[in-house]
């Protein structure tokens, strides 16, 4: 065998080679820029994965993923084809509003998970164009400035997981009660205790809801939710680092939603006492330790 033949025979088929590079990119997203330098074909394969998770925050950083600034995401929205961003960006966290933010959102209509932190407002119609959007964390009040909240808006039509960052007092109770009109909503989360009696009613009459999470660390407030805790779908999640938890979710699906689902399944299977509705914080214990702690011995 000549040296040329040996060199050629060492090549993998293109589909296997692509899978190898894509697996490496997903496993180590921060190494994608280096992979893009290997060859043009590799750049075509892995560059979309560089922008799969976009986390923008002035005060927080995310580990294991590239860090984006407001300037870099604005550059992306202006320099990359809309089709490229639509097919690349899947998870986006915006920690604060910035000029040009709406242009970024308009360019990333393929997002499946979007977090708009407290104080961030967005044009509801831009969210309505995100046909793949399933998970949304947002101040609902800011989506409808000066208008009644409309949960029948197209922005909510495909939402399955909704975390409400508002205070219950931001809107009339009658408006919050309409949250059960979101056609595909199965998971609802909140942190303001004022929502407990409101969403208890929603949970009572909405069989479609599979999980409701009260994000709270105050033991008195947790004890005060005992009546709704009788419903196995209601879970209290203790103290968590929300930025770290978001990262767990996009990396391994082990965010508070996933832990709550496992907790509820454990109760239904009889492995967790039916009277318990507070799950141990994963920030205090490891993931496996949490599952052990929930079990009855």
| CATH topology title of the largest domain | Leucine-rich repeat, LRR (right-handed beta-alpha superhelix)
Strand content: 5-15%
Instruction: Supply the helix-strand structural class.
Output: alpha/beta
How does CATH name the architecture of the largest domain? Alpha-Beta Horseshoe
Task: Provide the gyration radius in Å.
Answer: 22 Å
How many domain modules?
Answer: 3
**Shape by Cα distribution:** globular
The CATH class of the largest domain, by name, is Alpha Beta
Number of strands: 9
List low-pLDDT spans.
1-10, 284-297
Quickly count the helices: 16
Order of helices and strands: HHHHEHHEHEHEHEHEHEHHEHHEH
Overview of this protein structure:
With 297 residues, the chain is an alpha/beta fold. It folds into 3 domains: 1-50, no CATH class; 52-185, Leucine-rich repeat, LRR (right-handed beta-alpha superhelix) (Alpha-Beta Horseshoe), CATH 3.80.10; 189-297, no CATH class. Helices cover 42% and strands 12% of the residues. It has 16 helices and 9 strands. It has helices at residues 3-9, 14-27, 32-35, 40-50, 70-79, 82-88, 101-107, 124-128, 140-143, 173-177, 195-205, 219-223, 226-229, 242-252, 256-268, 287-294; strands spanning 53-56, 91-94, 113-116, 135-138, 161-164, 187-190, 211-215, 234-237, 278-279. It has a 9-stranded parallel beta sheet with strand order 1-2-3-4-5-6-7-8-9, with helices on both faces. α10 (173-177) links the parallel β5 (161-164) and β6 (187-190). α2 runs parallel beside α4 (40-50). The longest helix is centred in the N-terminal third of the chain and has 14 residues, at 14-27. The relative contact order is 0.07.
